[in-house]
Structure formats: structure tokens, C-alpha cells
């Protein structure tokens, strides 16, 4: 019996994945739960296991193909054992690309056809009207190949070779005065009109009268191609800056009490194999302040916003593929020890390249730490679809004014600047400042329990 292998739901916000590499060949025998294929998503990479033991009958998707969740990507003939044996490094049979049945173009939320910034740039450079291009990608998305076919196809040739029709006028009327020369065509302006009034500037191309000068190679230059993770990050950050009107507010935090608390407790944590860092204190303070100021724990919809119930903090950590933000779930219900354990766990797995899609899904707010070689402070870009992110600055000893016995005096304390970036679509300055003030208060009072 043939058993379908479908692309599973790889995380709550993942709707599609890319076939990175087939790990088996057609005709090969496999065991139940044996990895069949590596799938790349915008969150992380995962492997899809075989649902049964048997022989691989068909591979129905090619490497590099983007497929939607629940799509059948392979078939396994259950119970059959007479196929090829697995051999590491053997070439995998990749099915040829099959044409996608034409369907009506799907429109993006701004009114234009679905297409990435790279595809829009290609269309601009080749004077192709995206609204006239039949998309063959997932859900009707216009691909770069679609644009290039349109640029060299019959429509393009007809447009370039067919002269405009002559206009017949009555002989009794004198010809009108010549009209002023039409303005130079501007594909960016056309795109704006097609999209209902606005499209963002196209990366690498420009906007309006401004055009990005082309790159001219020079001796000693080194061109570094984008990795898949870097491309995803670049697209995410670009989208976030256009989608969310960012505002940054900064607080100075006196960490004298928090540092003393840490110094008194860190050996106990070290004995349990955990590292008590200031990051853990900031995550605890942030989670508690979010519970008290829920408007920062939200996401924006088309014509509304949702105040989210769970407080899930995404904590930015480094990994072999770049920066990722695994999630500490229900962080407001955890004390210092629970936060330290959770952050330690995800950080170690991220650095080992063992982070999963579920680890990276569902954040409602984010905290990022530039590390020991940080700087005074910086405004981070919001991690969509969140409406806020806190960035820690470096911790330095500075002179501060403290009150003692009713008198002010100077003291040397460890000080850190916290920068809150927030989405001004739904978060006003009063709410943002009140939230950051509360985070600061919790840290300065060292209101924690071991």
C-alpha cells in the first residue's frame, strides 16, 4: 500500500517550506521514522521522517522547490523490503520540475501581485508590468523566471514592435497644437499606482528620481553571497522597518543592587551547571512589566490589534547560521531560576545547531543582548509580528548620585542603558515610557527571588 508523506505543520506560523535535500532515493528501503528529506523554513531547518517502514516509491518534489504545508512530497510503499539499500553519499534521484497549472494571480495586502523585493527589482529593470504576469509560484506568487519569460515573450515583443495606431481627424479642423512631451516612464510610479498608492522602495534599485548606482568591481573586493539565513534576516528586517513606524526610548539603569544579588547567588547556580547573567534579570523584569503593561504584549492585524494572553519572550542568541531568537514561553510565570534554565538551554542548542522551529515560534516580545563587546545603547529593529523589543547596552561603572541619610553623594555603580523600540501604530509614548520605567524599577530594586 502506498503511504503519502506530506509536509507537516513545522511550527504555528509556518505555511510553507523549501526542499533542501533528499536524504533517500527512489527504490530505497527505509525504516519507520527514518529521515527522508531536509526542509528549510523561515524559522529553522527540520527533517521529515518516514511514517512507515517500506520502499520509497516516488519523490514528488525537487530540491529547491517551495511547497505548502500538507502537500504530498513523497510516497512510501509500506512493508516492501526488496529495494535499494541506503548508502551514505549516494546521489539522490530528483524529480524533474513540473509545470504549475495557471491560476489567477493572488494579490498582496497592498494590492499588487505576490512577489519578493528581488522579483520586483527584476521586473523594474526589465520594464515588466507585474500585474500582467501569470505567477507560477506557491499561491500564485510571481517568480523571477515568470518575470524573465514575460520580458522576452510575445507580449514584450508586441509592445516593442507595434507602433501606436494613427488617429484620424476630420479634414475640416486644423490639427491641434502639439502636446507637451510625456514624462519619462517611471516604473516605480506605476507600481505605486497599481498598489493603491504606496509600495516601498525597491532594494538595490532605488525610489522615484533616486537610483542606486551599479556596483563596479575593484581589485581586492570580495563578493560574499547571501546565505539563506542572511537573506531571511534581511527580508525580515526590511519588512519590519517599512511595516512598523519605529520609535526608540532609552532608560539608564543603576544595576548596583542587581549586581550584588548576582554576586551573592552565582556560585549556587554555577554548581548546578547554570550561568547567572544580567540577561536573565532583564528577561524576568521584562516579562513582569509586560504582564502589568499588556499593550506592549500585542500584535497588529489589518484593522485591529490583539492583546496577547501569554507572555513569550524571544531571546536573541548566536548560532552557526546567524542570529536567532528562541522563545522562553510564559516567562512571566518563571522566576530567576526558571528563566536561567530556559535561556541556558536554548542558547546551548542554538550554538550547537540543534534549535527547532517550535523553539523559534510564538514570541510576543523580544530581548536582545549585544554581548560583552557591546556599546552604550542601540535601537533594535522589531521582531515581527511583535510591537516591541528591548536592547541591552554594555554595563560600565559610572559615577551616580545616591541618597544616603537624607543627603546626596557620589558613588561608583554599574550602569546600563536599555533601549526600547516600539511600534507607534498601537503603542503611544505614555504606554511605552511607563513600561520601560517599570522594567527599570524592577532591575534597580533587584526585586527577584532566587
Helix-strand pattern: EEEEEEEEHHHHEEHEHHEEEEEEHEEEEH
Percent strand equals 15-25%
Query: Any low-confidence stretches, pLDDT <50, length ≥5?
Result: 87-91, 97-102, 104-111, 181-189
* Helix content bin: 25-40%
Overall structural class, as computed from helix and strand content, comes to alpha+beta
Care to count the β-strands? 21
Cα-atom Rg, whole angstroms? 28 Å
Outline: globular
Largest sheet: 7 strands, mixed
| Amino- and carboxy-terminal Cα gap | 57 Å
Helix count, per DSSP?
A: 9
Mean pLDDT: 81
Task: Write up this protein.
With 450 residues, this protein is α+β, with helices and mostly antiparallel strands. The strands form 6 sheets. Strands 11, 14, 17, 18, 19, 20 and 21 form a 7-stranded mixed sheet that branches. Strands 1-8-6-3 form a 4-stranded antiparallel sheet, with no helix packed on it. Strands 5-4-2-7 form a 4-stranded antiparallel sheet, with no helix packed on it. A hairpin with a 2-residue loop joins β20 and β21. α1 packs parallel to α2. The chain is globular. The termini are far apart. The relative contact order is 0.10.
